[in-house]
Amino acid sequence: MSELLIIVVGAGAAGLLAAAEAAKAGAAVCLIERNPRPARKVMITGKGRCNVTNNTTPEGIIANTPTNGRFLYSAMNQWTPQDTMDLLEAQGVPLKTERGNRVFPVSDKAVDIVDGLVRHAKSAGVRFEQGRVEALCIEDGVCTGVRLQDGRVLNAYAVIVCTGGKSYPTTGSTGDGYAFAEQAGHTIVPPRPSLVALESDDPLCAAAMGVSLKNCALQCVDRATGKTVAKDFGEMMFTHFGVSGPMILTMSAHLKEMARGRYELRLDMKPALTVEQLDARLQRDFATYKNSDLGNAFTHLLPHSLVQPFLRKAGISPRLKCHTVTQEQRKKLVSLLKCLPIAVAGFRPFEEAVVTSGGVSVKEVDARTMASKKCDGLYFAGEVLDVDAYTGGFNLQIAFATGVAAGRGVMGG
Question: For the purposes of burial, counting CB atoms within 10 Å of the CB of 375, is it exposed (0-12), middle (13-18) or buried (19 or more)?
Fold first, then answer.
């Protein structure tokens, strides 16, 4: 098989490992990347630090993959998080594990991860070529190569599509892989942003812009069914468009069928206190600051910039003296502190999303080899597939594992 050419489209996390695995098995591999530099998206992950994987078991990755996690069972056992860490350290990139088992380079520089992955591919014998693939070449249900935008046709034994999704399109993820898959007869699950901030028309959000909250509890309710979609605990931030922060990004992964007003976030800003304990706390505070304005007294409970927007939402004047607050008003304040409703208007755009949910239907892809069930000689790996996980290094690990599975699968491994 050494004379057979394997073409890998897209030199991201999945493409680099797919190409390296096929080359290690003896294939001549051409890795085609539209950008001058490989793995541009990896460069910006983890705010430029690159949360490269999660120091957990294969089962831990699958448990944190809400979209088609079970599809990953074979791939994740072929290439575990430990394998990812071992590879990078062998390439001279020391790693460290932080909160939540998130793995980063010791240098805190994503470029070190990218350089390590590129070294790994080049040392395996992968040939890099810059160019943009315009279409697949398909004859009688078999993928025979690719046609480049400059008109060239490259014939190949097999093609592995690792083009990513639609998130961060400036890095080259513009959805090209979906068109290739459709050309081969595949079903595309409609892409949507995931791990992305949420928009809200609630005036409180813009009024409290820049306020960060820690140690909050959040639940999201589907108004159409009345059911709780997801719960979380952690940090979030109010913005001019709505809400953001780690807890919000994770929550977005659960919102599958977005429609304006369908979902409502309910924020508990005092999760350590019961309703009764919080009511008693307010009574003590109001007695202590009985001659003060309510707005001034509330700065002991909430960040200063959140107080007035919060009281406006409660319909209570911040100039009201504490000793004049009625029992009904106090209960309203307690209720909002424990369950502040924020209607979701929609996702922020793909340009701001960490990953794409949706893509090539995994029902039409072999879970062990990543081979197309629709077209011989065609394989998929990484974010182009309809698989996505929570934040924490899980999505990069999915890209690595599916890339390895495809690289081995194309060589009959």
Answer: buried
